[in-house]
């Protein structure tokens, strides 16, 4: 309800992830409680969720409903997290604002005259507005760090290839004609939240056996408590 309230004010949510209530009921019956047990998690638009589109803010992808959760969404669910909404991005995601022709302009909840930043702007706006406590964004050149800064949040751009980004967003392949996209600077998925402890907990949850098995291209280096 909180997320819908924030969305009415700043237009940050693109989709509600159906099935999240069923997932909660399933979790309650499990003996093993994951590190993110029962935490609702918002997901940036381009990260695949089964039964939903990953538009990248582009009309050409509106008909393509994804048949599988991306690895990161599978791991979040494995750890008891509940992906519940998808959040807005700028068209093609290579922009420091957050607007596209499908879902419109996302505003900054701290000041609706301002941008929430991009490209994970929907995440920034939703979390800063109180509609989510943990979100997954992505960053090539500031797409987690800028909205975190603009919205007064904490965000982490992990080391390249530390977290699975399988499957990579189709629209990046489309834009680059299937050429490797910005090879020198790896695009990565990463957490956004209101405090550093939440980011650390999320990273600890993601760096688990489940992720290393689902995506063997990720080096199986566990979370380092001391660091």
What is the topology?
Elements: H1 2-10, E1 13-16, H2 20-29, E2 40-44, H3 71-78, E3 82-87, E4 99-100, E5 104-105, H4 121-128, E6 134-139, H5 145-150, E7 154-155, H6 170-175, E8 188-193, H7 196-206, H8 209-214
Parallel strand pairs: 2-3, 2-6
Antiparallel strand pairs: 1-3, 4-5, 6-8, 7-8
Pfam family, one: Amidase
GO biological process, one term: fatty acid catabolic process
Domain Amidase: 5-220
Keywords summarizing the entry:
Amidase signature (AS) enzymes; 8 helices; 6-stranded mixed sheet; globular; alpha/beta
Number of helices: 8
SSE sequence, one letter per element:
HEHEHEEEHEHEHEHH
Number of strands: 8
Strand order of the largest sheet: 1-3-2-6-8-7
Do you know the CATH architecture? Alpha-Beta Complex
Average pLDDT taken over every residue: 92
Main sheet: strands, sense, barrel: 6 strands, mixed
* Anisotropy-based shape: globular
> Fraction of residues in helices?
25-40%
CATH class: Alpha Beta
Rg computed from alpha carbons, rounded to a whole number of angstroms: 16 Å
Strand composition percent? 5-15%
Domain Amidase: 5-220
Family: Belongs to the amidase family.
Keywords: Hydrolase
Protein name: VDHAP protein
């Amino acid at each position: 309800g909180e997320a819908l309230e924030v969305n009415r004010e700043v237009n940050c949510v693109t989709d509600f992830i159906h099935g999240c209530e069923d997932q909660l009921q399933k979790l309650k019956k499990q003996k093993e409680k994951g590190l993110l047990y029962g935490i609702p998690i918002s997901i940036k638009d381009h990260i695949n969720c089964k039964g939903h589109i990953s538009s990248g803010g582009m009309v050409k992808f509106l008909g393509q409903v994804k048949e599988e959760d991306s690895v990161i969404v599978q791991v979040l669910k494995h750890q008891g997290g509940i992906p519940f909404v998808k959040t807005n991005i700028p068209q093609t995601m290579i922009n420091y604002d957050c607007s596209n022709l499908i879902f419109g302009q996302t505003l900054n909840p701290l000041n609706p005259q301002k941008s929430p930043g991009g490209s994970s702007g929907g995440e920034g706006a939703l979390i800063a507005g109180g509609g989510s406590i943990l979100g997954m964004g992505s960053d090539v050149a500031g797409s987690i760090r800028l909205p975190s800064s603009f919205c007064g949040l904490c965000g982490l751009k992990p080391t390249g290839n530390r977290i699975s980004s399988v499957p990579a967003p189709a629209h990046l392949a489309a834009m680059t004609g299937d050429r490797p996209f910005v090879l020198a600077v790896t695009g990565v998925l990463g957490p956004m939240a209101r405090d550093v402890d939440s980011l650390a907990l999320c990273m600890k949850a993601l760096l688990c056996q489940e992720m290393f098995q689902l995506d063997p291209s990720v080096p199986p280096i566990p979370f380092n408590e001391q660091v």
